[in-house]
Amino acid sequence: MQLGLVGLGKMGFNMRERIRRAGHEVVGYDRNPEVSDADSLADMVGKLAAPRLVWVMVPAGDITRQTIADLGDLLEPGDLVIDGGNSRFTDDEVNAKALADKGIGYMDAGVSGGVWGLENGYGLMVGGDAEHVERAMPIFDALRPEGPREEGFAHAGRIGAGHFAKMVHNGIEYGLMQAYAEGFELLEASKLVENVPATIKAWQRGTVVRSWLLDLLVRALESDPELDDLRGHVEDSGEGRWTVEEAIKHAVPAPVISAALFARFASRQEDSPAMRAVAALRNQFGGHAVQTAGPTSGSGSTQS
């Protein structure tokens, strides 16, 4: 099967290789000429035989929207576009309608696997018409992990369902990572536990908290046992925020995912205005000691 792949970054580059290993032809386009198989988006489309299948794997937002709009001007009726980036699910209906007006099909695909997907395969969650899913199945089968299809691939529902499922997946990921991180910090703070990396490594087999994320934490600790080489500054891709917004919209309690998202916000503050306010209030009502921005500390404390 032939595929056009737009975006050959950290994931797209490895996806191209995995699909090729499965025996398919991939014509990749990237703005970086060192990795691109085509000189332009138009050149990539020109190298594909109709009806074409094009997978978009570029950063979510304006870049994805513009790329899909450009493809709408280049492709022909009967062609099919898959957005495999981390787009917000609300973009999918808009993209699908714009392409449908030109006779071009559209699907959204949530893709999980990161930089390890080349060897391990990618978990796939797809939204779109059943006929489009069936048409692209050889590519999905090439990308997903080995084993039963249903353990690495899901036709989640109609347009938007794939990205919605991936959004929730990433929200869960936020919570899992935060739990491991808090456990690591508590072990580090204890005077009883003398070998934190060994303790966490012992959780990898037989325990109820074993997971691939735990394996990755063990890997990180092997190279930096106290993680001193890193700053505790954590960005978010947007999907955690979207998950919390949807939880609010549907009145679904999501305290763990919400707390994990807010913890990321806190990680970016060198000095928290909110916690300064808490310190000021404790000083006002109870005379509790505060640390000032200058060389001296605040007044003594009384109990309340």
From TrEMBL:
The keyword Oxidoreductase applies. Residues 162-304 form the 6-phosphogluconate dehydrogenase C-terminal domain. Its EC number is 1.1.1.343. SMART domains: 6PGD. Keywords: Gluconate utilization, Oxidoreductase. One of its GO terms (molecular function) is oxidoreductase activity. InterPro entries: 6-PGluconate_DH-like_C_sf, 6DGDH_YqeC, 6PGD_dom2, 6PGDH_C, 6PGDH_NADP-bd, 6PGdom_BS, NAD(P)-bd_dom_sf, Pgluconate_DH. PROSITE patterns: 6PGD (PS00461). Belongs to the 6-phosphogluconate dehydrogenase family. This is Phosphogluconate dehydrogenase (NAD(+)-dependent, decarboxylating). It comes from Saccharothrix hoggarensis.
